[in-house]
Specification:
Layout: E1 9-17, E2 23-30, E3 39-45, E4 56-59, E5 64-66, E6 71-72, E7 78-84, E8 98-105, E9 110-113, E10 123-130, E11 136-142, E12 153-159, E13 170-175
Antiparallel strand pairs: 1-2, 2-3, 3-4, 5-7, 6-7, 7-8, 8-9, 10-11, 11-12, 12-13
Length: 181
């Protein structure tokens, strides 16, 4: 067992090895009746996963969640997809559920939060890709209820400044039955 929070639900584990060899494990811990009470945590391993650090909180705001591993940017920083889930209904998210990223500068060992990506039904679980030094694209799962709906489509957001700021989520032609990408 690498992470187990007593009397709480742990989930959404994302494991990633950085270019320096450090293995990062990101996950969420739920502190209430819905995921809008969760906090994102992480642990690191400097020996390829044989031993792990104590856990640390990376998302202090209630509803802070992680689902995907980071991507390494061309400038050496890495970009961790995060989202802020809101709502007290266990069967759906509220429309203000939004995605964002935490950018890690390995030299300074600091995290910087980007702006929130908003959309008409809310969104979560961004999957980014870097096209060139400045241009990145992210596809996002739509928010709302957890039922499959053939009229539901993914959102798309863009960054033109290397992942520091992001556009509003715009509807795409890609169907999304409300499942992770």
């Amino acid at each position: 067992i690498i992470a187990d929070t007593p009397n709480r639900s742990d989930g959404n584990v994302a494991v990633w090895q950085g270019p320096d060899g450090i293995v990062w494990m990101f996950y969420v811990v739920n502190y209430g009746p819905t995921w809008s009470h969760a906090r994102a945590k992480y642990k690191i391993s400097k020996d390829n996963g044989y031993t792990w650090s104590d856990s640390d909180v990376i998302g202090f705001e209630p509803g802070s969640m992680v689902r995907s591993r980071p991507i390494l940017l061309n400038d050496g920083d890495f970009l961790l997809p995060m989202y802020h889930e809101t709502g007290e209904d266990p069967e759906k998210t509220d429309p203000d559920t939004s995605s964002y990223f935490l950018r890690y500068n390995s030299a300074a060992k600091t995290w910087t939060e980007t702006n929130r990506i908003t959309s008409k039904t809310g969104n979560l679980q961004a999957s980014p890709v870097q096209i060139d030094d400045k241009f990145l694209v992210a596809y996002l799962r739509c928010g709302g209820n957890y039922l499959s709906d053939p009229t539901r489509f993914m959102y798309r957001s863009e960054s033109r400044d290397g992942g520091k700021t992001w556009s509003m989520g715009e509807t795409t032609e890609f169907k999304n039955p409300n499942s992770a990408g």
